[in-house]
């Protein structure tokens, strides 16, 4: 994948809004997933109770995370797995590269994993001369297209079938079995081409890399849920399995899966249960991988845990329900967020994991209308709107001082006006006089202003500014004695 320099969310979103094909692809796909989720959730009378239970389970895990991680390590080690600890992306990548080299392998097959995308593992493996093959259909599309994932669940959601066909025809033959020359954009034909292309890689690979949806503390088990079966192939055929797992994925007990495996598939794919659930606890004699390694990844998670107002983001189970209901995501797509985690959850998780030093990360907390739809659908009840406000405050506080921006100057001016009622009354009178003039026949009886002069022009660039009222509420109150003399 080629290196990309990301603009701020606002700049990227402005470009995305002009892409009619992208907007049509997003609206179609998110609409389908949204409707499926609503149907299967509506079947349950106790959905809200399940959400509360899932929230409590994840909070319990986070409040005693150190204990649960130590328990997980002990149980996984006792079962024959080797557990590694990685402070950051660099350390995690080094561990994985060394493990692959130990096996004398020049390639790996991969299960879809947000954690490995977060640490840019594919790029690290490529730099070490190791090819990493994505086996999830959507991830394969993204990889072959030298693209970037744009959705947590459906990374290639921004592509339509015709585009996928062109990518397969153009790129598959360069890295393996070519797509058939008579390939059409029929979904069955596209899936068949991917299946045949990947099969030789599955059968040849000696090392697989996965993530995990959950890690069970009291058994040392890892859990992967998926819909295609490619994960099952990666988790069972190679001799060596390396799993990169965020430390927040741990659950206290086996019983906790009862709740999480009900809310996750309904919230993500709109299914009552996912087609494939793979659970393993170390290696099994003569069956499946015989070398099992687990890399427990921090990479900023402990600093998120330390923030009492922000730590709830670590509850996230990567279902993507918040993306599918977000009006901002639906119109701008995942690439606008400049992160492997797009949408509402990305807007709160990424700035906490990476910090707010860059312009991209500073812009993410403002990538929302604060409508609240994300909280309504979140299966673990992450209050994303409140967290966005918290992060906006942090961004503003961290950037006080220096040369003020136009927005800061406007806020200072507004604060000065509102600090004294006499100043406010003077502004209201001036605005009322302007409103009367604009509504007069002299100015054509205007009700709205198409644009405002600089610096207010930035605000009116995306909306019509109303003509100020001819009379303020305060003036009306004084004139009518509170409405008694109307």
TrEMBL record:
GO terms (BP aspect): lactate metabolic process
Protein name: Iron-sulfur cluster binding protein
Domain Lactate utilization protein B C-terminal, residue spans: 395-479
InterPro entries: 4Fe4S_Fe-S-bd, 4Fe4S_Fe_S_CS, FTHF_cligase-like_sf, Helical_ferredxn, LUD_dom, LutB/LldF, LutB_C, NagB/RpiA_transferase-like
GO molecular function: 4 iron, 4 sulfur cluster binding; metal ion binding
Residue intervals of the LUD domain: 70-297
Sorted UniProt keywords: 4Fe-4S, Electron transport, Iron, Iron-sulfur, Metal-binding, Repeat, Transport
Coiled-coil ranges (or none): none
Residue ranges annotated for the 4Fe-4S ferredoxin-type domain, each copy included: 313-382
Pfam families: Fer4_8 (PF13183), LUD_dom (PF02589), LutB_C (PF11870)
């Amino acid at each position: 994948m080629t290196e990309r320099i990301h603009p701020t969310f606002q700049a990227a979103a402005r470009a995305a809004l002009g892409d009619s094909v992208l907007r049509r692809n997003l609206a179609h796909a998110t609409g389908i997933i949204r409707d499926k989720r609503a149907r299967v959730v509506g079947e349950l009378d106790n959905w809200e109770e399940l959400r509360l239970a899932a929230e409590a389970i994840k909070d319990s895990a986070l409040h005693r995370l150190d204990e649960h991680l130590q328990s997980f390590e002990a149980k996984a080690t006792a079962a024959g797995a080797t557990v590694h600890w990685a402070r950051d992306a660099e350390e995690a990548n080094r561990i994985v590269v060394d493990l692959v080299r130990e096996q004398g392998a020049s390639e790996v097959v991969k299960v879809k994993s947000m954690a490995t995308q977060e640490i840019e593992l594919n790029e690290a493996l490529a730099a070490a001369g190791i090819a990493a093959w994505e086996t999830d259909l959507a991830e394969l599309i993204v990889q072959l297209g030298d693209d970037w994932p744009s959705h947590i669940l459906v990374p290639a959601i921004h592509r339509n079938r015709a585009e996928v066909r062109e990518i397969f025809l153009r790129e598959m033959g360069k890295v393996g079995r070519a797509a058939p020359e008579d390939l059409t954009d029929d979904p069955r034909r596209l899936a068949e081409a991917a299946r045949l292309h990947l099969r030789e890689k599955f059968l040849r690979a000696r090392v697989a890399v996965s993530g995990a949806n959950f890690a069970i503390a009291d058994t040392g088990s890892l859990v992967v849920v998926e819909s295609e079966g490619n994960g099952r192939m990666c988790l069972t055929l190679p001799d060596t399995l390396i799993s990169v797992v965020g430390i927040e994925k741990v659950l206290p007990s086996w019983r906790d899966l009862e709740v999480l495996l009900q809310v996750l598939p309904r919230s993500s794919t709109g299914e009552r249960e996912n087609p494939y659930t793979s659970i393993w606890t170390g290696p099994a004699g003569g069956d499946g991988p015989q070398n099992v390694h687990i890399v427990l990844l921090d990479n900023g998670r402990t600093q998120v845990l330390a923030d009492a107002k922000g730590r709830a983001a670590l509850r996230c189970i990567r279902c993507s329900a918040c993306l599918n209901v977000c009006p901002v995501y639906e119109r701008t797509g995942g690439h606008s967020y400049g992160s492997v985690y797009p949408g509402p959850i990305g807007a709160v998780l990424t700035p906490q994991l990476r910090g707010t030093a860059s312009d991209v990360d500073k812009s993410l907390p403002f990538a929302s209308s604060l409508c609240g739809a994300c909280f309504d659908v979140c299966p673990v009840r992450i209050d994303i709107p409140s967290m966005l406000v918290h992060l906006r405050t942090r961004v503003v506080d961290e950037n006080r001082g220096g040369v003020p921006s136009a927005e800061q100057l406007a806020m200072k001016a507004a604060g000065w006006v509102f600090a004294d009622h006499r100043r406010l009354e003077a502004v209201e009178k001036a605005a009322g006089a302007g409103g009367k003039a604009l509504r007069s026949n002299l100015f054509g009886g205007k009700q709205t202003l198409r644009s405002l002069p600089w610096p207010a022009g930035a605000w009116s660039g995306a909306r019509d500014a109303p003509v100020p009222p001819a009379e303020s509420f305060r003036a009306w109150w004084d004139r009518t004695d509170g409405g008694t003399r109307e």
